[in-house]
Specification:
The complex is a heterodimer.
Chain A lengths: L18 H21 L9 H18 L3 E8 L2 H8 L1 H17 L6 E6 L2 E6 L4 H16 L3 E3 L2 E3 L3 E8 L7 H17 L5 E3 L2 H6 L5 H9 L1 H5 L13
Parallel strand pairs in A: 6-7
Antiparallel strand pairs in A: 1-3, 1-6, 2-3, 4-5
Helix pairs in contact in A: 3-4
Chain B lengths: L12 E6 L7 H14 L4 E6 L6 H5 L7 H7 L8 E4 L2 E4 L13 H15 L4 E6 L5 H9 L2 E6 L3 H18 L4 E8 L2 H19 L3 E8 L2 H8 L4 H4 L4 H14 L12 H4 L2
Parallel strand pairs in B: 1-5, 1-6, 2-4, 2-5, 6-7, 7-8
Antiparallel strand pairs in B: 3-4
Helix pairs in contact in B: 1-10, 6-7
The chains are: A alpha+beta, B alpha/beta.
């Protein structure tokens, strides 16, 4: 959003070569530059960790107000140390830039891509359910895997591990706790052999709500239903 | 507003009738219970909680001018939306066929709560007829009121859906007390059997004690009432169903508001 003052090219009082105006403009530009510096990662151009925490806090608040879930993806480039050791740190930087470019190309405009630190990235998906976020993560995983990057004249295939989690309005969760939760799934993905997506199992979320097979057979195994001839005769034993 | 009678209770008692499954006669029972309570001299408000597909007004043949939706959208005076069927029986209609209202967000719910609370204060007893299913609005109304009444028929799908709703409300919204109202039963024996069966499963799996509120028998007077858009309590006051409703209303009269504790809604309750 451009500052309204910046769009004025002349001193509002019409003075030519006004020193105060020139100084004000210089300060405004400096301010913009510093804000940019404070919020972006210079290498990749993505939001940095500080800006990410602010964005995540805002999106979680939006979830509480609108009821739409916020999904969070924590990503880590696999074997990044090996890239650095083999091709040097400049090539490592190229790899980081390349990966963020590939992912950004595959995301919506509303998604917020951040460099969390080192070879770790975070993507905030506003108004997105878990299963959609998992699908997006799988797309990003495939996109990186299928697009080799050229490092020092050699084609290198990069891969990454993804941890995905969703925040829904009824959960009491801080920004840090949410990141920690998503991070746990990232660790799981690493542990299971990398280059994969791990997330909160949709079944475990559903299990608490759905009527289980045990409950179903208890409901229909009893007298009331079987007398109507509508239920299977099988009856599970029930204490109490 | 016609203040023809004064309130008898210090705080309004609020109850929600839900079923999980549709077509179990929930709206018909709510309407007739409201009439029966009004006949006892209480000031009764009937709230159509089916914000997406309202039908209390259809069942009563009402001409609706202002709806809950209008109040949410235009900040109309909430009390103007109340239609009086009797001097002491009001209806707060929802609007029909507005699908987006069936899925209100937490912020809308908060606003809805702010609208309902002052209206409720004018009544002794508030009965909310919720939508079928376990959508956000159904859950919200169920956590907003003091008492949860579950309408169940002996149909296995109705039993399962009622159980599913009880499970969600107890697990995720910390509701512990549920009153079962059996509908369309052959006789008292069948009602007891269905209740005891459901209560046993709820006790075993959810560690909950379900309470038996009563039963309404199968009765041609009920469908006759629906067809002629009038409560069966009025057109067939001596029918089996009407007598059952009157006795259940007497039981409801014994309920009291839990006192001035702040209401915890679905959003605040956490899961």
């Amino acid at each position: 959003m451009p500052d309204p003052l910046c769009s004025l090219t002349l001193c509002p009082f019409g003075a030519e070569d006004c020193p105060v105006w020139a100084e004000a403009q210089r300060l405004q530009e400096e301010c913009d530059r510093l804000r940019e510096l404070a919020q972006t990662d210079p290498l990749t151009g993505l939001f940095n960790r500080r800006r990410m925490m602010i964005a995540l806090d805002q999106e979680m608040e939006r979830t509480r107000r609108t009821g739409l879930p916020t999904s969070l993806m924590m990503i880590d480039l696999d074997h990044f140390k090996r890239v650095n050791d083999t091709f040097g740190h400049q090539a490592g930087d190229e790899a980081l830039k390349f990966a963020s470019w590939v992912w950004r190309k595959n995301l919506r405009r509303i998604d917020i891509t951040c460099r969390y630190g080192g070879e770790e990235f975070a993507i905030i998906l506003p108004g997105t359910r878990l299963h959609t976020a998992v699908r997006v993560a799988k797309r990003l995983q495939a996109a990186l895997q299928n697009a080799p990057v050229v490092l020092q004249g050699r084609k290198v295939r990069l891969t990454a591990s993804f941890g995905v989690d969703a925040y829904t309005p009824r959960q009491e969760l801080t920004v840090r706790a949410f990141i920690k939760r998503a991070d746990r799934y990232l660790l799981e993905a690493k542990f299971k052999g990398r280059n994969r997506v791990c997330s909160q199992k949709p079944e475990t979320a559903k299990q608490t709500l759905e009527v289980t097979m045990d409950e179903r057979s208890a409901l229909f195994g009893g007298n009331a239903a079987s007398e109507n001839g509508l239920a299977p005769r099988k009856r599970t034993s029930m204490k109490g | 507003m016609a203040e023809t009678t004064t309130r008898k209770y210090p705080q309004p008692v609020t109850a929600c009738l839900s079923s999980g499954k549709g077509g179990v006669g929930k709206t018909s029972l709510t309407v007739n219970l409201a009439f029966a309570l009004a006949q006892k001299g209480l000031r009764v408000l009937l709230v159509d909680g089916d914000l997406g597909l309202a039908n209390v007004d259809v069942l009563l043949g009402l001409q609706v001018k202002t709806t809950i939706r209008d109040i949410l959208d235009t900040e109309a005076d909430p009390l103007e939306a109340v239609i009086y069927l009797e001097p002491n029986l009001g209806v707060l209609p929802a609007s029909s066929g507005v699908p987006d209202l069936a899925n209100l967000g937490p912020e809308d719910h908060q606003q809805l709560g702010g609208i309902l609370e002052p209206i409720f204060q004018h009544f002794d007893f508030v009965l909310v007829d919720t939508a079928a299913g376990i959508g956000p609005s159904v859950l919200w109304f169920n956590t907003y009121v003091d008492y949860n009444i579950l309408v169940v028929t002996p149909d296995p799908t109705a039993i399962t859906d009622a159980y599913a709703l009880i499970k969600v409300l107890s697990r995720n919204y910390h509701r512990q007390s549920f009153h079962l109202l059996l509908n369309q039963v052959k006789d008292g024996l069948e009602a007891r059997q269905v209740y005891e069966h459901l209560a046993r499963v709820a006790s075993h799996f959810l560690n909950l004690d379900l309470e038996y509120l009563g039963a309404v028998p199968q009765d041609p007077a009920v469908s006759k009432g629906v067809r002629s858009q009038a409560p069966f309590l009025k057109i067939a006051p001596h029918s089996k169903a009407a007598r059952a409703i009157i006795s259940h209303a007497e039981r409801l009269q014994g309920w009291t508001a839990p006192g001035p504790v702040p209401r915890k809604t679905a959003e605040e309750a956490g899961g």
